[in-house]
Amino acid sequence: MELGGGSNNRRRDKAITGSVLCFCGLPAKISQAWTDKNPGRRFYGCERYKWFDEEEAFGWQKEALIEARNQIRKKDKIIAELKVTISELRSDLVKKEEAEEDIINSFLKL
Known about the structure:
The chain has 110 residues and is mainly alpha-helical. Helix content is 60%, strand content 12%. Strands 1-2 form a two-stranded antiparallel sheet. Strand 1 and strand 2 form a beta hairpin. It is rod-shaped and about 95 Å long.
């Protein structure tokens, strides 16, 4: 993360006291990226943090988000199917109630 305003100040203050933690929970230190994409960018990371390739470092998070998105889509599809089933069952129930009422009325006319 870049040093500077806002919530980053809290992290910087904690870094001074030595209590900043990496996203994985290990103690973090300030590192500096020298990639083409982020030359000179400062950030916090633990000894396991792969600062040289952010795509690789956060790949597990991207995979987790994609998996969660797919699960949500699957569950949304199931919910939509269940709503259709409920609608059909309600319609069938109304038809059966109407048929039952017709039978009772016919019997009463006798």
